[in-house]
Amino acid sequence: MEAIKKEYWKDKANKALGISPEDARITKSYLIVAFAAILVGGLLGLLQGMNRAGILELPVWLNYYKVLTAHGLLLVVVLSAFFTIGYFYAGLSHSLGGLLPKVRKMAWIGFWMKIFGFVLAVIPILQGDASVMYTFYPPMAAAPMFYIGLVFIVLGVWMLAFGAFINVANWRKNHKGQHIPISFFAMGVFVLLFFGSLPVAIEVLYIIPWAFGWIETINVMVSRTLFWAFGHTLVNIWYMTAISAWYVFVPKIIDGRRWSDLLTRIVVIALVIMNITGGFHHQIIDPGISESVKYMHVFMSLAIGFPSLMTAYAMFAVFEKTARKKGGRGLVGWYKKLPWGDVRFLAPFIAMAAFIPAGAGGIVQSTNQLNQVAHNTMWVVGHFHLTLGMTVVMTFFGVSYWLVPYVSGRVLTKEINKLGVIQTIVWTIGMVLMSGAMHWVGLLGSPRRTSYSTYFDNATALSWDPYLFFLAIGGTLLMIGVLLQVYAVFHMMFLAPKGETEFPVADVEEDATPTPMWTERWGLWIVLMIGLVSMAYVIPLVDFIVNAPPGSPPFKTW
Amino acid sequence: MHKAEKIWLTLSFGMIIGFMLITGYQAFAKDMGPPSYGERIDPQNVDETAPFDNPGVKQIGENEYEVIMTLQIFSFTPNKIEVPAGSTVHFTMTSKDVTHGFQVADTNINAMVMPGYISKITQTFDEPGEYLVLCNEYCGSGHQLMGTTITVK
Description:
Chain A is mainly alpha-helical. Helices cover 72% and strands 0% of the residues of chain A. Chain A has 18 helices and no strands.
C-alpha cells in the first residue's frame, strides 16, 4: 500500500514537471521522422494506386517497382519503427521518472545509425539498383549498399532495445514490487524487436558477401525463411504497440479505468512467446516443406488469434463499464455516452473496429487451403492495409493528438481536434474503399506487386479494372488524410498555444487485485519463446540446409 | 475473471480449434493440402535435368495430362496450353532464375516456383474457357507481362 501511495505521488510530480527537455527532444525527433516518412510514403502510395487503376503511366525513371520498394520501406520500416520508438521512449521517460543519461545517449546513437542506414538503403533504390521490394528475396540481388544500410538499421533498433532494457532494469532495481503498465508493453515490444530482427540480421550478413560476389551462390529457401521469421514479427510488433495504447491510454481518455492488469500482461506475454513462429504462414504454398510442418505452423499462427480475442473482449468491456458509469443505458444504448467527438478516442476506436474484419481475414489467409486462394493476390495487400493502415496507423494518429503536444509543451486546440475528426473520417472512408476493393479483386485473382497490366487484353484481367479503380479513389482520399494529419502534427509540434498536456495513463479499478510478481519473469518468457521458435524452425531449417539444392547466383532482373 | 469473459474465451478457443480441425481434415483426409512437393534440382542446370530437358504437355491417361514447365523471366515454357474439358492436369514446375509464382485465375491453382525446388500442383478443368495464367511473385521489370493462358475446350 505504501508503495502504491509513493508511486502515486511520484506520478503527480511527473505530471507537474512534464517531460524533461532532453527526453522530449528524443521523442520529437523520432516523431518528425515518422511523419515525414508518411508524407513521402503516402505520396508514393498514391502514385501506385493511380498506376494500378490504369490512369497513370509512371515514367521510366520513376518505375512502379522502385516506387513500391520505397513505399514499403518508408511505411513498414521507417514510419512504424520511428513512431514506436518515439512513443515508448516518451512512455518510459514519463513512467520511470526520466531516461537515464546513458540511455538517452543510446537513443541518439540508435537514431543516427538508423538514419544513416536508411540513407544507405535509399540511394541504391533511387538509382534503380535495389528494386527488390522490402522482402528482397534472393536470388534477386540489390546493390550491396542496400544490405549494408539494412544492417545499420537493425543495429540502430538493437541500440534502442537495449536502452529500454537498461532503463527498465534500473527502475526495477530501485522499485521492487511495483508495476508499470506502459513499460511492460515496452519490454514486450523491444524483446520482440530484438529477437525478431535476429533472423533478418543473419540473413543480411549472409547476403552481403554474395551480393559482392565473394561467394557464388546462396541458399534461397534459408534466406526466405529467415526473412519471414522477421517480417511477420515486425507487423505484430506494430500491432502490439497499437494495443498498448488501447489498454493503457484510451481508458483514461474516456474517463474510465484500465482493464485487469494481470489479463493485460497475459496478452503481452502470449504475444511475445507466440509471435515469431507466425511468420511461417507466408510460406504455406512454398515447395520443399512438408504438409505436416505447414499444418503445425498454421496452428502456431492461429494461436496469436487468442490474445487478440482476449483484447476484443477487454476493450468493449472497458467501454461499456465506463459508459454505464456515466449513465449509459440499454443493451447497446450506452455507446452514446462515449466521447465520439474526441479524436483521441475516435481514431483508436475505429482502429479497433477495423481489426475485427482484419483479424478474421488474417485467420483466413494463414490457413493452408484458404491461403492457397489468397496468397500473393491483392487480397493480401487489402489485408495489411486494413491491419497496418487502419488498426495500427489510426491508433498512432489518435495517440499523436496527445503525444505530440505532450512532448512539445503545447496543447491540443479545439480546431485541431475537429481537423483530427475529419481526418479520421476521410482516412476511414479511403481505407475501407481501397482495402475492400483489394480484398475483392484479390479473390478474383488479381496479383499483388504488379504494375498495371491487362495481360495482353485478357478478358479476365480486364474484368478487374472496375475494382482497381477504387485504388485510385481510396489512394486520393488517403493522400488528403496524410496531408491533414501531417499538418495537425506540425501544428501541435510548433504552432499550438503553449501549455501542459497530460500523459494519459489510466488507473486500475479501485478494487483491483495486485498484479502477481511472476508476470515480470522476462527471462522465463524469453526461454519459452526461444523454445517455441526452436520447435517451429529447427526441423525445416535443418532440412533446408542439410538437403539443400545447389545454390543460386545473384540476378538483377529489373 | 467475469463469467461472460470465460464464455467468450471458451468460444474463442473452440472457434480456433474448430478451424484447425476442419483445416486438418481437409488437408489430410480430403487431400486438399497446399502444394508441398519436396524434390530439389540444380537451378543452374534446369535445361539439362530430366524432366525439364523436355518441357511440354504430355497425355498420360484418359483425360489426364502432365505439364512439365519451366518459369523464367518473364515467361512460361510451354505457354498457351490447350486441354479438353474435364481433364485433370498435373503441373510439374521449376524456376530457372528468381522466385516466381504460378497462379491460374478462377481456379485454386497457386504455387510458389523457386529456383532449386520442384513444385507440383494438380487441377481438374471442368468448365471450358480461357484461363489466365500469371506470375504472382514480383520477379523484375517485366513481371507484369509474365502471363499466358490455358484454353479448355
